[in-house]
Structure formats: structure tokens, C-alpha cells
Amino acid sequence: MHLFSAMFLLVMFAGMPSEALYPSPEEGWQIYSSAQDADGKCICTVVAPAQNMCNRDPRSRQLRQLMEKVQNISQSMEVLDLRTYRDLEYVKNTESLMKVVDGKLKVASENPRSLNPKGFQELKDKVAQLLPLLPVLDQYKNDAKMILRLREEVRNLSLVLMNIQEEMGAYDYEELRQRVLLLETRLHSCMQKLGCGKLTGVSNPITVRASGSRFGCWMTDTMIPSSDNRVWYVDGYFKGRRVLEYRTMNDFVKGQNFVQHSLQHPWAGTGHVVYNGSLYYNKYQSNIIVKYHFRSRSVLVQRSLSGAGYNNTFPYSWGGYSDIDLMADENGLWAVYTTISNAGNIVISRLEPQTLEVLQTWDTGYPKRSAGESFMICGTLYVTNSHLAGAKIYFAYYTNTSSYEYTDIPFHNQYSHISMMDYNPRERMLYTWNNGHQVLYHVTLFQVIKTSGD
Ligand SMILES: *[C@@H]1O[C@H](CO)[C@@H](O)[C@H](O)[C@H]1NC(C)=O
Ligand SMILES: *[C@@H]1O[C@H](CO)[C@@H](O)[C@H](O)[C@H]1NC(C)=O
Ligand SMILES: *[C@@H]1O[C@H](CO)[C@@H](O)[C@H](O)[C@H]1NC(C)=O
Ligand SMILES: *[C@@H]1O[C@H](CO)[C@@H](O)[C@H](O)[C@H]1NC(C)=O
Ligand SMILES: *[C@@H]1O[C@H](CO)[C@@H](O)[C@H](O)[C@H]1NC(C)=O
To answer: How far is the first Cα of the chain from the last one, in angstroms, to the nearest whole number?
Structure first.
């Protein structure tokens, strides 16, 4: 097992395609939540006010809004709950491991002859390093308890709302609204607290589908919170205009139920990202970023990324007009590129999603042409050293401290040619396009938990 310093706790975050995250009918939530029917279609059942209610009654409108809020909260809750459940399992394992080490130490100190002096010292050092973790583990268990409490509150609230349906008017709406607001705020801070960490591992690849050419890009919406389950598919790396929209991950796997969008401006590279219902991409033969809104099928804004190289001047190691890579993480929208004045080293800019203005820029010092791909998790850019077999995550740049370190995080590059690699903060998965295969990876994050002593 790894030894780590007192303030760090290794926590497993494993995501899964988002349809599976929503509550199942057996849990009794189905009236507020999306669930899957027998064909795997995503259904969303909304409880309408009773038939005899006048729809223009402001109270019934307020009630519907409250229900929608609770529906949203319960969806976030399920995601959080699934994560913490897994995290807690990990914590429990770590804890029992520590107890084993501690037990061995006791045996050894009572019967010193069972262990040679070198082994004894090693064991002692190990325990000394593990002990400060105990309060962190306790803290973690408290967090998990808090989530259980929050979950119960959501259940209670949704029960109250269900009752109201039957006896409209008997409740104080203002009080209910306050309860929902409070719950929302607490849930938000809870998610932020448990949300972020440092990448320490990548799972085995999960091949979702084999389709398209060697180069391409696929993804789901990256904004938190969002209940948008559609899958976006962009095959090819230059001068294309066609974007496919699949209704769900299941439809994507089966290659069914899709519609097509034809972009007004062609794209360059595979660095596109879908964020809050819009596709952000690099316009062919320019350093212009385009924001295309899917629902209205229109370009909302386009703006030049000042100084950014384009047209295969500064691509990743695999070429393919990959000069400008757009991505989103827990902190928002980012562009990864380089300029002549940065001598071809990777530059990160945080973008304002409505106007595409650059909010802040960091120079990582890492040569872009020596990077296979890069992706952002919790404000940290991770860079691979190749797009070919044997690639690993080799470099990390922390925007929070403007510092970097070399890393050595292996992953299995199964089809030996990665032309896209992006983190989805909603699902906590890496989306990759590998030689005509659409592949996912789970990630392991090292979580920082502040204890009262620091
Ligand atoms: C629920 O979430 C959806 C999608 O994120 C959002 O459009 C809607 O405004 C939310 N509703 C409420 C009442 O917060
Ligand atoms: C939920 O409702 C039950 C029964 O009314 C109550 O005992 C419990 O304290 C409530 N939980 C929360 C967190 O409000
Ligand atoms: C910066 O972010 C990384 C992970 O993204 C985290 O491990 C580190 O503790 C953060 N540093 C500070 C000073 O917040
Ligand atoms: C998401 O889009 C909606 C409109 O479609 C907008 O009102 C909202 O501010 C956007 N949120 C973010 C974080 O960009
Ligand atoms: C892009 O590169 C191609 C070939 O390298 C060249 O013919 C073309 O003029 C360039 N376009 C721009 C806008 O720089």
C-alpha cells in the first residue's frame, strides 16, 4: 500500500454512464426522476397538479417549481450518494489494513524474536506514517454521515410534496421554499467539499463502441449540475461540419436514435467540448473558437484566441490540426494551446463561457509537440507523453499554485492511437477516441480533506 502524508486521503471515485446514476423505480422516487424503461429509453415523469386544479393558480405553479427543484436535488443526491458509498468502502478497507499492520506490530513488540530488527523498524515506520491518517478517516466518516442525513431530508421533502398534491393549500409555501433552498445550499457545499482531488490512477479501458475513422471526438455534456444524458459524436479531425446527437449512452452503444447537426463553420482538430448545451470548437484554419448552441442550432458567439497557433503549427504529437484543445472541469471552461511567444510550450487559459473572453492564463513550460493529449481535472492539467502504445500521464500543471510536477501514471492504450482524451467532471470519467474506438476510463483521485488542526 502507498504511504501518504497526514492531510491526504486516497479516495476512489468511479463514475459510470449517467443513465445508470438515476434512481430506480424500486426506490420510490420515480415520480420525480428520470429512469430507464424496458427499451433503455430515458423517461422523465413529472407529477402534474391534480386534474381539477386550475393551471394558472400561482400556488400550483409554485408547487411545480418546488417539485422540479427537489427532483434536481434528488438527482444530484443520487450521484453524491453513489460516490460516497464507494469512497466509504475504500476508507473502510484502508482502516482495516491499518489495523492489521498495527496488530502485527503489537505481536512483534511482545515477541521481538519473531521479527528481525530491520523488519521491526520498517513496520514501526509504516505505522508512524499511517497513524496521523486516523483523524482524517474519522472526518471522512462524518462526511458520509452528513450525506445520509441530507438524503433523508430530500426523501422527507419529497414525501411532503407528494402529500401536498392531495391537499393543495394546506401548506406554507414560503416555509417549503426555504427548506428547499437550504437543502440546495448544503448539498452544493457538500459536493464541492467531496468533489475534487489529485489524479493518482486510471482504470483499465472500457470500450463502449468501435465506430468512425481513426481520429475523432465523443462526449456528453460536461457541466455540473446537468441532467443532459445525450452523447455527442464528431468523427474526423479537419474541415468537418457533421455532429451526431444520440439520445442516451445506450442509444450510442447501439448506434440508434440520433439526429444530425450541420455546423455553419467547419472544425479543426478533435479538441471540441460540449458544455451547458453548447459545442465549443476551433474553427478550421483560424484560432477562432465558436460556441454553437444545439437547441437553437445557432452560433451564439465566436472569438479569436489571441496569439494561439493554428493550422497544424502547434499540434499534439499526433498532428491532426490539434492546435487548440477545449475542455471543461469542475471549475469551468478551459483552452489548451500555445503561441509563438510561449515558444511552443503549453498554455492554459480559463474562458468565460458566454463571451469566450480569456479570464486568466498560465504558461506550463511543457512543449506541446511532446504531448500526446491533455485533460483537466479540478484545475490541474494532466499531459500524456505520447499518443502511441506505452503512453503515460507524465506531467501535471496545478493552476491553483501555478506549479508543475512530473508524474508517472500508467494507463492501457489498447488500440495504440489516441486522438482525443477529455475528463468529464459529471461522470468522473475519461472519454477517449482510440483508433476508431470510443473508450472510457475511471479515475482515482487523491482527495484533500481539511482537518480542524490546519
Ligand atoms: C433543474 O435542472 C434543470 C437542468 O439543470 C434546470 O434547467 C432547471 O432550471 C432546474 N430547476 C430548478 C427549479 O432549479
Ligand atoms: C424525516 O422524517 C422522519 C419522520 O417524520 C423524522 O423522524 C426525521 O427526523 C426526518 N429527517 C430529517 C433529516 O428531517
Ligand atoms: C491544488 O490542486 C491539487 C489537485 O488538483 C491539490 O492536490 C492541491 O492540494 C491544491 N493546492 C492548494 C494549495 O490548494
Ligand atoms: C447555462 O445555460 C443557460 C441558458 O441556456 C444560462 O442561463 C446559464 O447561465 C448557463 N450556465 C453557465 C454556468 O454557463
Ligand atoms: C494552412 O496550411 C495549409 C497547408 O499547410 C496552407 O496551404 C494554408 O494556406 C494555411 N492556411 C492558413 C489560413 O494559414
So the answer is: 26
